[in-house]
Amino acid sequence: MSQETRRRSYRYVGPAELRGAVRADSSGAAIRTAADLDMWIRARPPEERTEPFTYVVDAAGTLRLAPRRSEHVACAGGGRVLGAGEIGFVREAGGWAADEVSNQSTGYCPDVTSWPAVARALDGAGIARPDRFTYEVVFRRCPACDEPAIVRDGDFSCVFCGGDLPGEWNVDPGGIRRIP
User: Which residues lie across from 66 on neighbouring strands?
Assistant: First the structure.
């Protein structure tokens, strides 16, 4: 994987009304250290701690967390991201560890190649993690009907119109920005 691919950032491609509802001062909690994560999780209600959280890796490379039913665009404060999805944590002897990590974000539709950015954010915060996404979502935009779609079971057919989906990520090629 090239350095260029690993440093791709994504802009929000979801419903405009969700982006329009984001307040300038709203974003997920910045997790820069294992202590930040511990404090944030302990502040969550017990029932929230057992389900995955919404996360983004912002353009600066910082992991940001929000409760699961939060919108990714709100977690990102409306900005670009290096990665987005859902993440779950388990308590281990040395602290919290990420045990489930996906790129499941229909607002940003990040490519599976966003994993290195997620790994860097977790490593930088001192949080143990798996070696890759534990659940990968393959997003594509249908060239025939222009709808964003999810590839399921290796079937590169659009669920909306039946058209063929491309093999390469193409959800928002005009919005790709390379981070130096």
Answer: 54
Distance CA 20, CA 16 (A): 6
Tell me the whole-structure pTM to 2 decimals: 0.91
User: What's the angle, vertex CA 172, arms to CA 57 and CA 101, rounded to 5?
Assistant: 35
What are φ and ψ of residue 20, in 5° steps? -65, -25
Query: What digits encode the pLDDT tens for the residues 23-78?
Result: 766 789 999 999 999 999 999 999 998 899 999 999 999 999 999 889 999 999 99
Following DSSP, what letter does each residue of 134-174 receive, concatenated?
A: SB--EEEE-TTT--EEEEBTTB-B-TTT-PBPPSS--SSGG
Q: Which H or E run contains 178?
A: strand 177-178
In this structure, which amino acid lies at residue 163? G
| CA neighbor of 88 nearest in space, from 77, 78, 97, 79 | 97
Angle at 18 between CA 23 and CA 107, to 5 degrees: 115
Tokens of 179: 């981070």
What's the pLDDT score for residue 177?
60
> Residue 132 corresponds to which amino acid?
R
DSSP E strand stretches across 19-107: 29-31, 53-58, 63-66, 81-92, 95-101
